[in-house]
Amino acid sequence: MSQVLPAEGGLRRVIGDGDALPDGEVEGLDAGDLLALYRNLVLLRTYDERSVVYHRQGRIGTYAIFWDHEAMQVGSVFALEDRDWIFPSYRFSAIGLLRGMPVSTVLHWWRGHPAGWWNPEEYGVASICVPIGTHVPHAVGFAWGSRLKGEDRVAIVHFGDGATSEGSFHEGATFAGVMKAPVILFCNNNHWAISTPVEEQTAAPTLADKAIGYGMHGVRVDGGDVLAVYDVTREAATRARAGEGPTFVEAVTYRAAPHATADDPSLYVDEERVAEARENECVGRYERYLTRLGVLDEELAAEIEQEALERMRAGIAEAEAEPPADPGLVFEHAYADPPPGLADDLAELRRVLGQ
Amino acid sequence: MSERFLVEAVNDALHVEMERDPSVLVMGEDVSRLGGVFRATAGLRDRFGEGRCVDTPLAEAGILGTAVGLCMAGWRPVVEMQYDAFSYPALDQLINHVGRYRWRTRGAMAFPLTIRMPYGGGVRAPELHDDSPETYYVHTPGVKVAIPSTPADAKGILTAAIRDPDPVVVLEPKLHYRTAKEEVPDGEHVVPLGEARMAREGTDVTLVAYGAMVPLCERAAVAVEGEASVEVLDLRSLKPLDEGALLSSVAKTGRAVIVQEAPRVSGFAAEVAAILAEKAIFDLQGPVLRVTGYDVPYPYWQIEDAYMPSVERVVDAVRRLLAS
Questions:
Q1: Residue A339 is part of which domain span?
Q2: Is A268 tagged catalytic?
Q3: Which of A21, A35, A52, B173 sits most deeply, having the most CB atoms within 10 A of its CB?
């Protein structure tokens, strides 16, 4: 059980500041696990920072930045079993990397190439959900359906604070409670839905308060503390497996980067809060914690960063080496058994293209 | 064969398919304890248990959204929308996910779900219990749409929909749930999607219809006997559409009137008319006419008959066409 720090609004946390705030502990993680978490954090951080550069270089399209959102992805996924399923929003587009998905696959997605669309069954990672909050019922249905089949599988669905205003969130959460589905509703409250602050999404004092209305357990955690995120997610998964139903996790951060590459947050954001968040960003925070613990030194950190950079270099090279997709793919995959008109359309397109 | 009302044929199809395939699961509002407000799902809870015949919260987008997740977990959900217009909140899931998810996985995952609902007017019901929403569904890529008009087809089409690897929306004409009985095959009975039915043969005019408009067109055909020999083509399936049957009937008669109870603008009749313009224009001896509902909200039920296509309006269209 991680420590609760009342000074930060009852947010669960583990990592201290090396000074007035003492470090807590999480059971069941050895030095190897602690380093694996670090490697994953660095991988996602590197992915994100390189993607912004690739966008500026015109090598990928519009990109939704997740800088300082790495701890929530890494901590929550590390708490699950491989058979459990992840339902990501577009903000967590690269979460599949934590399940062995190639870097090039996610880059393809942001390059709009068909090779960026994967088989969810291969990784236990559902497709990236673009329409806000509409994947909440999918995770709930998957969890409920798995339990109905007698399978021990948990689902986690990641979404932001703005998603809690959507009808799909409400309906999904309602079903989760009623069906006692083994699902974790993981909400990242980063205080902003593009430019709209969380205070204008809800009059509820906290988003975790919503859990009460759905008859589910709710918990608030420091979303920049990878160990605390791991700990609350593990507890939620344990509860789910025991048939005790869903959990709503509110992971609190402050969005310190633009919503996406096309956004200008200087029009709305609180610069002081941003500076504070950047100072306390999640990878550096964990790095200092591991250093205090004596698990990490500069040499190892540099090595891990190089590994991640190398994976990115290889990933973008692989993505850029992929031949352009065949226009015929436009007609593929929507139907197992397509209506006959589509074949005529394809033939006509081929004729006009002179193929 | 057994004599069954249309809604009984639906119920029979569900029993047969749930027996045959243990991954078929029925879900919706009031489908389990009550057996559905029209009793289409009566008896399923007793026979297959509440795990496979599920009363859900009153949340249509949640119903369809969780059905997507159920597919991912290996189920084959049959979702009931309680009434036509009650399905609109679920369009979010239908358009954003149901029609797209297979494509998103590049064909790796199947979403073999069925959405069935009573549709259509003429039943003296309150507002939003009378709509004919097929256009929304037909217009959604990745989704198939079928509308039976007879008890035997209601069973066979629902069976085909449940077995289909793609999502299928089946609209059931509630006006005819408990009107005429007919002989319905016992046991497994499949009417493949994409095959129209020749409801009545004729040589002068083709009436193109589906669902509750089919028996209406048959009555109109009888009403003009002696003046014209009228063919009635029951499309049964809007997507995939049996273009062959449509074009060969119009090639024979040279005249077409399309009848739908949905509002006119961009309705399915417009699609049929466009197909005839593209592929049958040299067979036509007159304009393609439409008899449809009007572009207004479905009216108060005391005057709903003025909105619904009637035998008189269809007969009038046939006479105008023959005179042109």
A1: 327-355
A2: yes
A3: B173
